[in-house]
Amino acid sequence: SELCQDDWLEIYNIYHDNTEKLIGRYCLLTAPGPVESTLGALGLKVILHSDSELVYSGFKARYTFEVAKSLFG
């Protein structure tokens, strides 16, 4: 469904104090495009949820690890 009740992908920022902030929840044909962790985050957490019903072609993602960008250019 369009409310992301059956299958979805969630992306979170993870912080030093063990908190998480949801970046977004995606389903159907929605895609977040490039996602970067925000300043101060340790990294990203990705959760793929499936209800195992009406399984189709699956899920694909691409990721890279990059050197942190300088704040001062």
Automatic annotation (TrEMBL):
<dbReference type="InterPro" id="IPR000859">
    <property type="entry name" value="CUB_dom"/>
</dbReference>
<dbReference type="Pfam" id="PF00431">
    <property type="entry name" value="CUB"/>
</dbReference>
<feature type="domain" description="CUB">
    <location>
        <begin position="1"/>
        <end position="66"/>
    </location>
</feature>
<protein>
    <recommendedName>
        <fullName>CUB domain-containing protein</fullName>
    </recommendedName>
</protein>
<dbReference type="InterPro" id="IPR035914">
    <property type="entry name" value="Sperma_CUB_dom_sf"/>
</dbReference>
<keyword id="KW-1015">Disulfide bond</keyword>
